[in-house]
Each structure stands twice: as structure tokens, then as C-alpha cells.
Amino acid sequence: MIIPVILSGGAGTRLWPVSREDHPKPFMRLPDGQSLLQKTYLRAASLISTGGEIVTVTNREHYFESRDHFAEAKLTRHHARFLLEPQGRNTAPAIAVTALALAAEHGDDTVLVVMAADHLIHDLAGFNQATEHAVALARQGYLVTYGIRPTAPETGFGYIEAGDVLDERGGCRVLRFVEKPDQATAQEYLESGRFLWNSGMFCFTAGSLISELQLHAPELLELARTCVAQSPRQDNANAKVQELHLASFAALPDISIDYALMECSTKVAVVPAVFDWSDIGSWTALRDLIEPNAEQNRAQGDAIFVDSRNTYVQSQGRLVATVGVDDLIVVETADAVLVAHADRAQEVRQVAKRLKLENHQAYRLHRTVSRPWGTYTVLEEGPRFKIKRIVVKPGAALSLQMHHHRSEHWIVVQGMAKVVNGGDPRLINTNESTFIPAGHQHRLENPGVIDLVMIEVQSGEYLGEDDIVRFEDHYGRVQ
């Protein structure tokens, strides 16, 4: 049995302001409208037959949005399984608990193909061919990594030095893993022909991984066993779900699989991959996905270039015009604008880092925020008031809740709302409204078959999102 395992945990700070803590890089939409996560799901599905299982390891806060992206990819003939992390602990704990969970259910011979949720590969046939090669080596007991043949002296990637050849298809033992080099060293690696880029994709049997962890990282393995034992699976109609136990998962070390195991084991092999590959690690990588005009300008969204060259504009709503500029990256969202020189695209992470230190909400949230039941968009806010546009999916419901410090006025602009407001439920039609005083228990539900769209006007002394006391919730958010 082959089971694709998708690790979906990176923040993607170099892609701020589109990638944020609450809306990380895997959920970003590419120019064709698909998210990176959806493309990874489709790539995973190509490896397995109808009825096969695709595992996603992600933060519990991203479960519902991940499930929506799985459904949007129309993978109805495959089973979705989610392992939900209560906090980020790097790749070694994620892979260890996944291997233990799958070995317990499917056996030690189960082959795991581990891939990141935010990589982009167009050559599906080449990827499947490389995976077939990796699976063959994995069944011989190797821990296999995918190495990408370098096309330039790239300093943003780690490298793998290939050793003895293992088969006629070019699989090799791994001599060593090398950290991101400086420019001169990267040039030497490129010219030697012995080095490959470390893609961060792996293939191994569950039993081989567990055996090597027992040999090289026994404490991590034992903590992972405890975590899996304390994390029972709770399946529902949409997916198999295993929420990892908070305390036992937090006890696991925050370490990558490369440091914890790959650099120690003598059973690591590399498959030289010939397919195209990008980790979409900066705005220049996204820029290169778009066809340029004669002046090498590129745009996603509404943009005008006047006497400009080598400039990339991404606009999510407003028209962006550039005049007399060269080599710029301009990214516009509803609440933030990034302007950066293309040569310094890697430094965008410093903006996200500073916003986090200052506890600025633009590090965490967009104006439009996804929730299990739909979305809300902050339209305007000021002292003692906030105006939101709320969209509730058909059949979905907000929690039964109460606010201490704010009152709310709801106006239905599309669909029909079923509302609890301090008493029995009642229906509110389009163009009708209701007022919810502070302290009233209330709930909003969409009983219809189309999206429910409402305008919410909040007023009060404190309008923070944490002024919510939940009494009942369909999505497990009651404390």
C-alpha cells in the first residue's frame, strides 16, 4: 500500500502580505485559481488508485479550510485523513506520529510518500516516474529523498551529495546533507555534478522509518508512541480525523527529520528527479509563473505599467499603476501593500517578523477571515463600531454564543437566516434584520441551499474577536 502524506505547516513569511499565520502559503491561490494545497492533493491522488487514502498533517486551526480545499479538488474517489497538530513541532515529530499511526492500521510495509503542501510541480508524469523509483528503493529498506538537479548556484536551498550508485536508474547512497551554501560554494557544487538540491520530499516504509528512529532517535520515537496512544481517531462523514494530544505532542522535540534522522542514518538514498520543481519560496518564484510582456513586466490582477521594466504587480482588489520603475515587486491586499526590490525578495520575512514582534494583526489575519462555517470580512471599523460582511455556507451554523461588551445588528442581504436571539429560533428573510443586545445568547444558521450573506454592525466598548463565550459548537470550539 502506498499512502501520500502531505505536511502542511509552513507559515510562508517571505510571501507576506498574502501568506499570513491564519492563512498560510498552502492556501494561496496561483494565477490559474488553484491553491498550492489543491495542486498537492491532485499530485498525491495521481500516485494511488481509487479508494486510496491521502493523509494531511496540519494545525488543528487549519483543518476545516484544508478539508474544503480537498473537496474543491473533487477527490471524491479518495479518502481524506487528517492528523491535527495542536502546535507546530517541525517535520520529525509530524512524520514520526504519522508513520506510527499508519503502521498500526496498515502494517509496517506501508509505503509513505511524504511531500510538502507548498511545492509546485508541473511535470506530473516525471514526478510519478521518480516516485516509482523511490518506492522500489524504499521497499529495499532505504529512506529515500528526492534530489533536484541544480540549474543554478542557488544559495536558498540545502544540498545533497550523492555517493555510490545503487541501481541502473541512477539511485545513489547519500554521502551527506549540506546546509544552504554561500555563492562560491554553490558554484562549486553545481560544477562538480555530485550535488543535488534537497527538495524536502521523502519515501520510505513505515517499518523502516520506525526502525531507524529506534536506532538514532529513540527518545523522539518513544514520545511519538505516547502521543499516538493518547490521540484516538474520531472519524466523521467527511474525513478520518486524529487530533493529537496537546501535552504529549508538545513534549516532542522541535526538530526537522533531516537533523533527527537523515543526517545520522546509513540507509539514506537519493533519487535524482528530472521533473520541474519549485518551493515557491519568494515573490520572485511566483512572479516567474506569469508570462511577461515586452518590457518583462508581469501582473496578476488589475495593473498598468508606464515606462516600467522587470516589475511584478499582484493586486487583489485595487488598480495598481507603476511609473518609471525597474525590478520591483508590488503586492496589494485589502489591508496591506508590499513594495520591494526584486533582488531583496527573500527579506520580506523581516516585515512579517517585525509585525509579529509588534503584535500587529496584519501578521496573523486578512480582512477576510475563513471560519469553519464560511467567512467574515471587516469592511470598516473605528471607535466603538465595526462593520462586517458575513457569509455562511449552506447548512452551516455559528456557535451558540454570547458577548460581554458588544451588541450586534444583523441585516440579511442574501438568503434566509435562522436566528436564536435570547429565545426560540426564528427565520429572517432578505432585507430583514434583528438586534442582539450584549449578554444575549445567540446563534446564526443558514438553513437554505445558497450562501447566506449578512451585514453585521457591532457597537460597544470592546470589539475584539476574543469577546466570545461559546456554549455549543458544531466544530469543537467550546473551551
Report on this structure:
The protein has 479 residues and is α/β, with parallel strands linked by helices. It has three domains: 2-273, Spore Coat Polysaccharide Biosynthesis Protein SpsA, Chain A (Alpha-Beta Complex); 295-349, no CATH class; 368-472, Sandwich (Jelly Rolls). 24% of the residues lie in helices and 32% in strands. It contains twelve helices and 27 strands. The chain has helices at residues 36-45, 63-72, 91-106, 124-138, 183-192, 206-216, 218-229, 246-250, 257-262, 283-287, 348-357, 361-364, and strands at 2-8, 53-59, 79-85, 111-116, 143-148, 159-165, 172-178, 195-205, 240-243, 268-273, 298-300, 303-306, 312-315, 320-323, 328-332, 337-341, 368-371, 374-382, 385-392, 400-402, 406-414, 417-421, 426-428, 433-436, 442-445, 452-460, 469-472. The strands form six sheets. Strands 17-18-19-26-21-24 form a six-stranded antiparallel β-sheet, with no helix packed on it. A five-stranded mixed β-barrel has the order 5-8-6-7-10. It has a four-stranded mixed β-sheet with strand order 11-13-15-16. It is globular. The model has no long low-confidence stretch (mean pLDDT 94).
Q: In summary, what is this structure?
A:
The protein has three domains: 272 residues, Spore Coat Polysaccharide Biosynthesis Protein SpsA, Chain A; 55 residues, no CATH class; 105 residues, Jelly Rolls (Sandwich), CATH 2.60.120.
